[in-house]
Amino acid sequence: MTNNSIEGSGTSESENSHNNLGTHWREYFSFSKDHKVIGVQYMVTTFIFFLIGGLLAMIIRGELVTPESNLVDRSLYNGLFTLHGTVMIFLWIIPFMAGLANYLVPLMIGAKDMAFPLLNAIAFWIIPPAGILLLSSFLLPNGPAQAGWWSYPPISIQNSSGNLLNGEFIWILSVILLGISSIIGGVNFITTIVWMRAPGMTFFRMPLFVWTVLSAQILQLFCLPSLTGALILLFFDLSFGTNFFKPLQNGDPIIYQHLFWFYSHPAVYVMALPPFGIFSEILPAFSRNPLFGYRSVAIASFGIALVSIFVWVHHMFTSATPDWMRILFMASSMLVAIPTGVKVFAWTATIWNGRLHLLTPMLFALGGVVMFILGGITGVMLSSVPFDIHVNNTYFVVGHFHYIVHNTITMAIFAAIYFWFPKITGRMYAEGWGKLHFLLTFIGANLTFFPMHAVGLQGMLRRISSYDPRYQGWNVIASLGAFLLGMATLPFIANMIGSLLLGSKASDNPWHATGLEWKTSSPPPRENFEEIPVVTEPPYNYDGRSRSTPEAATQE
């Protein structure tokens, strides 16, 4: 494989490390307590679920090419979009970010491992059986759950089959198991970051990625029990005849919505905060500028987490919500734009007058930031009560949501994979294939999700398999974009596998980046560092450093 990516010095050391990694490949299929192995296990496993979720999405978009429902029957269609959303949120984005944090956080703070290695392994090994259990619901006589990834009652407690074992039962059990995994992980991350930092690694010397992981995991611990409790009550209503959420038996389905969104809106920031940290790592490295306003960006991470706890009702503006509550949560929802705006301003100022090096990680980071701005604008629009009521339950909401969860977060994930691939594997990826992957992904993502705003404004409802023929033009464009987006994954897979097997050896720090993870070998040894490092410099200290740049490394 040709390799146009950059490579620095220190090949022999990295070569030895890579050979050590190769002799222990079986460890990746074992119950390991090494945070690096667990991190890779998370990332590879969740990427497989990402491919499955993407396949479900392509079937959905195949159905929507024509106005008639003629590809799959309606009940299967309902199951497809229910499991697509569930897989992408609970089996792709959230656990992938846990895996990336698992690998990087101890390295970034100078620790030898996570605080509780055994719990760390248990948290991962809950995920594969939970995911397999969820997907196995396709094999049931009545198919998988059909109530959407939010699973609102009373639809979600209508058990037409009469069987105790049904799709909704499987869905509830799977999501509860995944929630337990997240809670275990949250305890581990917070303990590790607070108590296991290297000497000199004060809070305001921590990389921004660590700040965002800490903020996200605090949200997990504070808000996730609300969802777990709601699902347990939903399970009792579904299976044992209780009446917590049954409106005809004096139950209140609106209470479920409150419990669900009290976690599931902060969950957007559980997913989005680590990508903000990824942008904050990559943009300074490839612009050769220190991160502008480091302390403000760090504090803004906690600001986002704090405000996001008080915005959940904006998902319920049409759910018999009183006017005083609408106004209060409209204001709090708009308030989130302030700390997020601080981050966007800092990223812009960082690359301003920088020496930009448009390698694959930088391209994905810049693309993710641009599409986050677009998704953020429509988010502010949706926080306004009149506009939200106008587009409620339309494809405008779907377009906005996917500009955040795919066009921002998944782009950030790919940026992170390319950026830290040399550190994790000891190999360089193929730059040409990486840029092709970015180009196809960026075009496909915008072709898929931008038209949804247009048909949503025209009134096309979401969660339907047939629609008015006047919406067909935009839907054809969106479906073609989705197929292109699915194909865009192929060069990525080829690049990763080919580079892992045949890529040139990576130096310890091919990007000439700051951060403790770049001061150890590629890949790192079992205990990360030969000696616990002592931190004496501020983060992102690119000014005053050697003027070595990523591109200069190609000539070494």
Radius of gyration: 23 Å
Outline type: globular
Q: List the secondary-structure elements in sequence, H or E.
A: HHHHHHHHHHHHHHHHH
Residues in β-strands, percent:
under 5%
Helix count from the secondary structure assignment:
17
Distance between the termini: 20 Å
Low-confidence stretches: 1-23, 552-556
Count of beta strands: 0
Which whole number gives the mean pLDDT?
92
**What percent of residues adopt helix (DSSP H or I)?**
55-70%
Largest sheet: none
Class from secondary-structure proportions: mainly alpha
3D architecture notes:
The protein is mainly alpha-helical and 556 residues long. 64% of the residues lie in helices and 0% in strands. It is built from 17 helices and no strands. The two termini are 20 Å apart.
